Amino acid sequence: MSKRFAVIAGARPNFMKVAPILRAFTARGVQPLLVHTGQHYDAKMSGSFFEVLGLPAADVNFNVGSGTHARQTAAVMIAFEEWAESQALDAVVVVGDVNSTMACAIAAAKIGLPIAHVEAGLRAFDRAMPEEVNRIVTDSLSTWLFAPSADGCANLVAEGAEPARIHLVGNVMADSLFASLDRARGRRPAESLQLPARFGLITLHRPALVDDPDRLAMVLQAIAGVDPDVPFLFPVHPRTRANLRDALLDAPNIRLTDPLDYLDFIALEELAAVVVTDSGGVQEETTLLGTPCVTVRENTERPITLTHGTNTLVGFDLERLRSAVSLALTSSRPSLPAIPLWDGGAAERIVDVLLADPPVVRFIPPGLSGAAGFDGPGARYGT
What we know:
The protein contains 16 helices and 15 strands. The protein has helices at 12-27, 43-52, 69-84, 99-110, 130-141, 150-158, 172-187, 189-192, 207-210, 213-226, 238-241, 262-271, 280-289, 304-307, 318-330, 346-355; strands at 5-9, 33-36, 60-61, 91-95, 115-118, 144-147, 166-168, 200-203, 232-235, 254-257, 274-277, 293-295, 311-313, 374-376, 379-381. Helix 1 packs across helix 7 (172-187) and helix 7 packs across helix 12 (262-271). The longest helix has 16 residues, at 12-27. It is globular.
C-alpha cells in the first residue's frame, strides 16, 4: 500500500522548494497531498507560482492570511492538526523556515507524525530573526533532516542531532531553477521591460530594513548613486512599498515594478550586472546563475554562497554597499566551480530516503568522499 505524505507550502519561498519534491514523488508512483496554508494569499505572491512551476492544485488550503507571528502560527497549527488527524498520513514534509514550516512541524509532532525537514541545518546564529527560531524548532522535531550543504550538517551535529537523522542531499532550489531556466529565458522580460544591456536588480523585504524608512531610503540612494547611468529594477514587495515614502526622490535610476513571477525574475537575475537583496533564496539563485549578489544583511544562513558562490555580505554599511555594487558593475563575472549536489537532483535524493524500505538511516550521495566541511560519526560529508 502506497505511503501517504503531506507536503506543506505556505509562503512564496516554499513553492519553488515543494515543486521538485512533488515531481519526484509522482515519478515514483506516489501522489502526496499538497497542503497550502495560505500564509501568502495574494495571487501575485502565491497563485502565479502554481502556474509557472506546474504545481497541482492544493488538496487543501487553510487560507490563514496575515497576522502577528503568534496568531499566524497558531492558526496554521489549529487548521493543520484538524485536517491531518482525518488523513491517515505516514509522514509530513516541510520546507524552509517560514511560520507555516514550524507550525505544521509542531502540530505533526504533537499527534505523532514523523517529519521531514528540507533545508535543515541552515543557521544565521541570530535568534532575533523569526526564521532562525522556526529553523531551530523544526529541526529539533524532525525525523529526517535534509541538509542542502555540508555546513548545515555540521550545524546539526553541533546542536546534538543524531547523525542517523542527517542526510546531505543538495539544494532543491537548484532543482527548480534548472528545470525552469529555458522557459524563463524564452520569456525575454528584459526586452519587454525595455531594460538596457547593463542593469541592476533589487529585491528587499525583510523587516530589519524595510520597516525603517530612513534606513531604506539611505540604502536605495546609495545603490542609485554608484552609477546614475545604470538603471536598477526594483520589483516591490507589498510591505516594502508601504514604507518607501520619499526614498526615491534622489534615486531616479531606480524603477519600481509590481512583484514578478518566478520565471521572469530568474531570467532577469541571470542577465543583471548585479543583484542587491536581503533574500535567502536570491543568494542561492544568483550563485547558481553566476550573477554577482550584494546582500544587505548583518548575517546569512547560507554562508556557502559567500565562500563558494557570488554573494557579498555588506550589512547596513553604506560604504561597503557602494563598493560591492561598484565592483560588480565594473568587473567581469568570476568563474566558480559548482557547489557539490546543487545539481538539480536533490528532490530525487530526498524521495529515495523517504520511500526506502527498510527506511534509510544514513544516506551518503554518490561521489562524495573525504571531510571537506563536515565529518559526522560513522559517515563523511564533503567533496
